[in-house]
Amino acid sequence: MIIGCPKEIKNNENRVALTPGGTLDLVRRGHTVLIQTGAGTNSGYTDAEYVESGAEVVADIETVYARAETIVKVKEPIEYEYKLVREGQLLFTYFHFASSRPLTEAMVRSKAICLAYETVTGPKNTLPLLVPMSEVAGRMAVQEGARYLEKPAGGRGILLGGVAGVPPARVLILGAGVVGTEAAKMAAGLRANVTVMDINLDRLRYLADTLPANVTLVFSNEYNIRRELPRTDLIIGAVLIPGAKAPHLITRQMLGEMRDGTVVIDVAVDQGGCIETCHPTTHEDPTYTIDGVIHYCVANMPGAVPFTSTLALTNATFPYLLQIADKGWERATAENEGLRAGLNVVRGEIVLPEVAEAFGMPVVS
């Protein structure tokens, strides 16, 4: 199989979907690997390292798409790439279709096969290809939130952990999945006063036994959220419904209940966001303010730490890529139920119900 890895062109996306180590394994199994020049530079990998691993380094993104049977990426194709995607070509990447109708319609028109990292499932309905980046994003959310609580960044001028004689900041985390749990660990480790909300009582019971005493677990509903807003300094949106658009747990009207300088970090923004006033931003221009509330809504947060993120991501994705390369996507998805769950669009047809429902489009079973 010919596998192509283009350089990511989304704003400040510094990760790469294939390392030299992965390249070496693919080449030794008889596959051809095309790497766009500079694709791994920001993650610490030179073109020479890819060449030493047996890859063919090509000059431009157009060549990668034109020659490869399978494209492996980190983030969804952006508008420039739509015209490069070929009928019957497999794209293996994060898509988050439910948050973008233009992307969905473009991939349907292309008649490509779109296999999304975020809906591949593992044992007990886990999401093994989403977990590593959720871990990174959850930890980063607290890091970025602490930064924007500082006065020069527009925040309330409050230190997350406080000091002796001065109370710490209050952190509200919406969602107790991987993102929410990692954010809670980080915020609690910095001695903040943390509240985590979720509707899954079993998950809340589990976290009650594993998280430290400065974390309070609360059932999530509008009443409980509204009660927290006036006294919260940092809010982290960490809601995930696999493949579907995130629900709005905080509305525009509810911003009026927060203090000026409150910071919201919506990690769910690449699935539409769980805070109504959030829209995707970039690392180049990460924040904006509405009603005195600072919004940080970068849709590719882990792209800021590519040395960590690339390895964490490829450790998880590469075994699946090997199956696809060795067997072809049709046999690989037929034999691996979890990988089959990653199919979102196949030859012009939406096959994941959550994507179809997001836009009122037909779904093919």
Strand order in the largest sheet:
3-2-1-4-5-6-14-15
Give the CATH H-level superfamily of the largest domain.
NAD(P)-binding Rossmann-like Domain
Tell me the radius of gyration.
Answer: 21 Å
Strand content: 15-25%
**The CATH class of the largest domain:** Alpha Beta
CATH topology value of the largest domain: Rossmann fold
Which descriptor suits the 3D outline? globular
Tell me the distance between the termini.
Answer: 27 Å
- Number of helical segments? 13
- The total of beta strands comes to 15
From the helix content, strand content and strand pairing, which structural class follows? alpha/beta
* Uncertain residue ranges: none
The tally of domains stands at 2
Structure description:
NAD(+) binds at residues 134, 198, 203, 220, 239-240, 267-270, 298-301. Residues 149-297 form the Alanine dehydrogenase/pyridine nucleotide transhydrogenase NAD(H)-binding domain. One of its GO terms (cellular component) is plasma membrane. One of its GO terms (biological process) is L-alanine catabolic process. The chain is an alpha/beta fold. It has two domains: 2-120 and 305-359, NAD(P)-binding Rossmann-like Domain (Rossmann fold, 3-Layer(aba) Sandwich); 132-304, NAD(P)-binding Rossmann-like Domain (Rossmann fold), CATH 3.40.50.720. It is 34% helix and 17% strand. It is built from 13 helices and 15 strands. Strands 3-2-1-4-5-6-14-15 form an eight-stranded mixed beta sheet, with helices on both faces. A seven-stranded mixed beta sheet has the order 9-8-7-10-11-13-12, sandwiched between helices. α6 (131-148) crosses α7. The relative contact order is 0.15.
